[in-house]
Amino acid sequence: MASQSKNRRILLVSADRDFVQETRTAFASSDAIELRVVERNVADLRGEVQDSDCGAVIIDMDAARLEEIESLQRVTRRLEGKAPVIVVTQEFNAAAARILVQLQVADFLVKPVTTADLVRSCIRALQGSGREERSESQIYTFMPAAGGVGTTTLALQTAFQLHNSATRAASTCVVDLNFQQGACAEYLDLEPRFDITEIENNPERLDRQLLDVMLSKHQSGLCVLAAPTHPSEMRSFNTDVVVRVLDLVSAYFDNVVIDMPRTWFPWTETVLLGSNKLYIVAEMTVPCLRHTQRLIQAVYETVGKEVKPRVIVNRYEQKKFENGIRQADVEAILGEHFVGGISNNYRLVREAVDRGVPLQAIDAEANVITDLRRIILPEEAAAVAKKQKSLLGRGIGLLRRAG
Q1: Other beta carbons within 10 Å of 78
Q2: Most exposed: 78, 125, 180, 349, by fewest CB within 10 Å?
Q3: What letter would DSSP give residue 32?
């Protein structure tokens, strides 16, 4: 009973009297939510949040002020994930978005906030805190080192492997952030349904219901969030739009696979910082490997050491030619960032793309699939190899006895 009471209780921290009054009015008629208020600036808190025993916290703050950001960090650290935090802010920019993604706040709203949006956000947060604990969403980001290196193919195949994995099998969504020339939906013969203009000027409008309308769903259960492409229209979108999309997707899916464009945009840094794993896809040519080196350096210069780029070399040839690049050269150039190569199986990949089906629908044991599993799910790949070795040994034993 005490737990149910806690999960109905929301604490509002705000020094804005008008916003406090509006929030009180919004929740006054609700029997589902109990609102408590601390009329202070977040920087003046002295333990009130931790002592409140609440199901969720609304913090009204100025995300452009360093001292308030630092105070928010202290609050989230002390809560230790026991209660989701919703941030309401007047000022909002790319740096603030990046920090909010890092702190994994449940939601963020920009003033002026409608009472309907605030109530919906709070209900989602409370429902989330009342569910059984599930593992945190894992975000896998794929970035091309050059054009035509097969990034989309590897991103989609990774999504299928995660979706069908014995260890990570759960809801999986592919997010195509290549708004100009993305092909994730076409590779699977799906209709791209993400109309970004619907939320461009009001990112908070994107909620679970609208997201569900905009998702393209594969028969396997894999979901794809992709917008219709506009090859002649080179434009970017505000960082808060992309952050809102990824924040909502990661709240409802266990695995999120992002297909990045080659061009860097103002929101690229934020996406990289929010990723659990970043894979740079390269190919086995001197220009591409050199550019991959520069790309690795650019990632470190942009986001620091918080994100370690892992390089996958696609269409990987292990033969040692007298002329050209050898395996040892690739390892020497990329060093510890090189995590593996994907065999060159052009015929299989082309057939899959032309038919709009995943690779495993044509050949579940193809070398491309095995190579990628070894990189993305190493423990599972080792278990499969061990089982195959055991079966092979058993078969040899039977043949010997029969002989």
Answers
A1: 12
A2: 78
A3: S
Q: Do residues 172 and 291 touch, judged by C-beta distance below 8 A?
A: no
Task: Evaluate whether 2-130 and 138-377 have a shared fold.
Answer: yes
Task: Single out the residue of 365, 327, 325, 323 nearest to residue 348, CA to CA.
Answer: 365
pTM score over 0.85: no
pLDDT tens track for 7-17? 578 899 999 99
What is the CATH code of the structural domain delimited by 2-130?
Answer: 3.40.50.2300
Topology at the third CATH level for domain 138-377:
Rossmann fold (3.40.50)
- Going from the C-alpha of 5 to that of each of 34, 147, 238, 389, the distances in angstroms are 9, 55, 39, 55
Query: 300-356 pLDDT, tens per residue?
Result: 998 887 789 999 999 887 655 455 677 788 888 899 999 999 999 989 999 998 988
Question: Are 353 and 330 contacting, i.e. CB atoms less than 8 angstroms apart?
Answer: no
Residue 300: Cβ-neighbour burial (10 angstroms; 0-12, 13-18, 19+): middle
How far out from the chain centre does Cα 60 lie? Answer: 26
